[in-house]
Design brief:
- By secondary structure, the chain is an alpha+beta fold.
- Among the domains are: 39 residues; 125 residues, no CATH class.
- The chain has six helices and ten strands, in the order H-H-H-H-H-E-E-E-E-E-E-H-E-E-E-E.
- Strands 1-4 form a two-stranded antiparallel sheet. A two-stranded antiparallel ribbon has the order 2-3. The chain has a two-stranded antiparallel ribbon with strand order 5-6.
- The longest helix is centred in the middle third of the chain and has 25 residues.
- The termini are far apart.
């Protein structure tokens, strides 16, 4: 077949260039990408989805941004059904995104109109198909927005206190963890670090946070840090919490 023929040509090319030690790895990555794409070749074909499903995700909405994001969420469900292990959906349907340095209220109204319906449909769809219990859903950004005005009714970046939510595999539904101060600037009740978030996600996925290592700039690193302390955020998971002093 095509893949076997391509592999033969690649191996011949690699044999002719033995000094290029990264060739084998590059060839393997291209072949893996091809196998992944061919295994899910029909994932973008939505013709067999019911009218109810298309409406639930907002694909028939006159709001084109909502329809685009709804298609992304529906495609993510289809990828999960195909066994794809990691799916990222970014709602940057337009160039503005959530970066509300000006007119932040308008940004939020527009973004909520794009995302609320498709996200709700995705969670309900995963649940009805028996996929939610084995799928960890994380809704997050890298920071929040300040309560103080910036520019023309805008809000600046705020890394000191913001909200994320999780659903699905191993998550204790309905729990609210922590709180910000009275103006929404800083986390003052049960503040959590990114290391703790990573530890919680890894534990929910069945991985011990200290055992997942990766090489970065010649060093062995962990998402929870090499020597830093971490804990699984209490109240998030349905099973016993772990910590590492």
């Amino acid at each position: 077949n095509t893949l076997d023929f391509t592999r033969t040509l690649n191996q011949r090319h690699a044999a002719q260039h033995p000094a290029h030690q990264q060739l084998e790895g590059r060839i393997a990555s291209y072949e893996l990408a091809y196998r992944m794409q061919s295994a899910a070749i029909d994932v973008g074909e939505l013709a067999h989805e019911s009218p109810h499903t298309l409406d639930a995700y907002g694909l028939n909405s006159p709001n084109s941004s909502l329809a685009t994001y709804g298609r992304m969420c529906l495609l993510s469900r289809r990828l999960i059904e195909k066994g794809v292990r990691f799916v990222q959906v970014c709602n940057a349907v337009d160039k503005l995104g959530w970066d509300g340095h000006d007119n932040n209220t308008d940004y939020n109204i527009r973004n909520a109109a794009q995302t609320d319906q498709p996200i709700a449909a995705l969670l309900q769809d995963l649940d009805q198909r028996g996929l939610l219990d084995s799928t960890l859903v994380l809704w997050a950004g890298e920071f929040g927005r300040t309560p103080m005005m910036q520019g023309s009714s805008g809000r600046n970046h705020n890394p000191y206190g913001f909200t994320i939510w999780m659903a699905g595999a191993g998550i204790q539904a309905g729990n609210v963890i922590g709180a910000t101060d009275e103006i929404g600037l800083r986390a003052v009740e049960s503040p959590q670090s990114v290391k703790n978030l990573h530890a919680t996600l890894l534990t929910a996925l069945g991985l011990h946070p200290d055992e997942l290592c990766f090489e970065h700039l010649g060093r062995q690193e962990r998402l929870t840090g090499v020597a830093e302390s971490w804990e699984v955020i209490p109240g998030v998971l349905r099973h016993t919490r772990q910590n590492h002093p």
